[in-house]
Amino acid sequence: MPAKKNIYIVDDHPLMRKGMAMTLEDSVEFSVCGQSESAEDAIGDILEKKPDCCVIDISLPGMNGIELVKNLLAQMPDLKVLMVSRHDEELYAERAIKAGAKGYLMKLEADDVLVAAVRQIINGGIYLSNKIESQLIMKIASGQSTSTNPLEILSDRELEVFELTGNGLATKDIAQRLHVSVKTVDTYRARIKDKMHLSTGNELMRKAVQWVEGNSDL
Prior knowledge:
Rossmann fold; 5-stranded parallel beta sheet; 13% strand
């Protein structure tokens, strides 16, 4: 039998990491060579172990998954990455591909889909859902955005601040998590309100909470 391909998992939820590791280990094709709960912990370990593929959550404490991918690919250009998230694939899939990932997978997908996605990426392909693949093709062909989600106009960092706000973090807590100043977080929030045409901080918080809880399409 051919040697198993080594997979590295980065996710800040222990149960999610365990579940993905078990799913991949159950396959005769893959072996999980390492796991980390943060980008900062993962970078050195990944550079040392040189896995065949990394499965990386977009939402991580400190440096987010998209920034981690950019950092890793600057040092390991041939590294294959599958990004995972529980959030809107219409919003995140394109950001993940632009960052250099070879695929995007919603966390709610079945276990066999994770295996299939990793296999496709390792074999040189790109993994996206049929829906997102069609939308990206239309977008490239038309030169215009096919998404109606207003969050698409936010930068990666602004989107991260919006998500953390929706998770109930105060400005000081967001600043500590992102390793920036409180003033910088306030600046991001002001930009978000401006781009999303929101009048107050309370309105921003309400929209963010609704989105995180999946109760709003914005």
